[in-house]
Here is the input.
Amino acid sequence: MADLKYEVIETVAVLSESPKGWTKELNLVSWNGRDPKYDLRDWSPDKEKMGKGVTLTEDELYKLKAALSELD
Here is the structure.
């Protein structure tokens, strides 16, 4: 498997923290030198390890925001 390179450009929100210190975060991340996208996943305290997550374009993020605002 090829090396995965990433750079957390901006932390938008920390949604939760586990007892082991892992945090669920919404970040703006550049993957393999590409344009940054919004990313929701769990991160280890040192940001060296990560869980599975979802990556969204800015347009997808705004559509998600609109859908969430319609929830009761």
In short: The longest strand covers residues 6-17.
